[in-house]
Amino acid sequence: MAQNVYAVTIWTCYLLYYEYNYISAKRIECFYSSKPQPHQFTILVRGIPVSQGSSVSDSVDKFFSEYYPSTYLSHMVVRRTNKLRGLIGESKKLYKRITHLQSDPNQQRAGCCGCLGLFRRHRADLVDQCEKKLGDLEENVRMQQSEVSSSEEETRAAFVSFKSQYAAATVFHLQQSVNPTEWVTERAPEPNDVYWPFFSSSFMKRWIYKIVVIVACILLTILFLIPVVIVQGLTNLNQLEVLFPFLTSILKITFVSSVITGYLPSLILQLFLKSVPPIMEFLSSIQGYIAHSEIIKSACNKVIWFTIWNVFFATVFSGTVLYQVSIFLDPKSIPARLAVAVPAQASFFIAYVVTSGWTSAATELFRVIPFICSLLRRPCAGNTEELEIPTIPYHRDIPRILFFGLLGTTYFFLAPLILPFLLIYFCLAFIIFRNQFINVYRSNNETGGRFWPNVHNSMIFSLVLMHAIAVGIFTLKKLSMASTLIFPLPVLTLLFNEYCRKRFLPIFSSYSAESLIKKDRQDENDPSMPEFFSKLVSAYQDPALMPIQYSSGRDDTRTTPLLSTEAEAEAEAEDGDGDGDGEEAHRF
Fold this sequence. Notes:
The protein is mainly alpha-helical. It has 25 helices and 6 strands. Helix 25 links the parallel strand 5 and strand 6.
């Protein structure tokens, strides 16, 4: 069996190296062939010190004009717009209600939402009432935009743009001040990927929130042990008969006992796991990330390790050594305990692959839950509701796929019967997700293969776990030679992982000076660069500060956009011809 472990390890490491190398090359190739993007020329600066009598905008302009006079292009100060964002959201909802009422003249509505038709009133009166409320909201938005445009609502953060990608990368990698908490630089996300609500938080607040999130994740992990214990109790008929004596006669029926001990536990566990990705996404959103993609990536990492711990380790040990606390006090015995516990849960994980894997693949194809939600919303929204194209739920699907990879790696020599079930799932998932990516989902931003390091680390962990289980099994079977041969494998695997980190991971965190300079020289010959730089000036303007323009399909004459901000007026003055390329209005 030792040669099988070696063969699987060598083959897996070869595939991991090949994929890492391939994705890295594709990432660089995509960078060279892509058009200039605003985030490649921009950085985010936080902790901006402000002297008395000056604004954040003045401080940013003075600092970068002094130290980077030849490469500094422009900046956009971030403002506190949480309240304004809420008002715009209310206006959007109310406008949708008005549009729905005007498009369906045969229905009488109750109140502004009026789904049941209770207390009916004339449609025209109701539309007038909602339009009056909308007018008040418009006025509040105008006033709030004027207040936010003042220097008092500036945060100590700004997006700073440069004339070349190399200049932006240089500023990003250098410490800008003697005080490391001032002029802190971060890589700027794509403009449509910016997560605006968390910019008003201070350095200390972000640091506290990170600690709070860590504590919350630990508490959630501990609390999740409760359903795991309940699930594992269902897999043991003897425990059920002791706890519920009145079920003894029912449990003797073969079909009932098979359903309760085989299918039901994994189904219950899967229902509890459905709530984990949204919770992890919320916790990641308050950690201080400035991009939706970073929030999803952080949530993905949290869900991966949460699933490995609570579904694999907690399930394995709760079914066999739940009350043996010594497992935590004697780490040397962990391989032996794993060797006993993991094979005992093979039937449970086979059922889990069917209930979680096959079912999720079928649900993804038919999208049953979104369809039901659409049916429930249709009586209220009518036919005027805008089609909302879903985004790819990376933090939900990637952890599931990686967990099944862990099951396949650890069970290939313990319970090979699980492999056909996993193979069927991976084939179905490949076909279904390929269709979903092409025809169903939309992408908010280009990931550029940034999730691959997570996949690589998860597979390395799976290999090391397989080695630990193999050592335990060979030790229990008193195969000292095989056990001794396995010992070098974890060390060699970790050395291989360290080599990959040194060789490929820097490509996923930033581009080299060679690549940046080569791309800048290539862009110098691009005739569209002057137009790109003119748009870059206002690319990172908060959408809440842009004018709101209602569609021309409305019956009333109130289509005047809200007041433009001062930054927009300055941008228009710089453009001269008034083409308004940087203005992209909300259309409700």
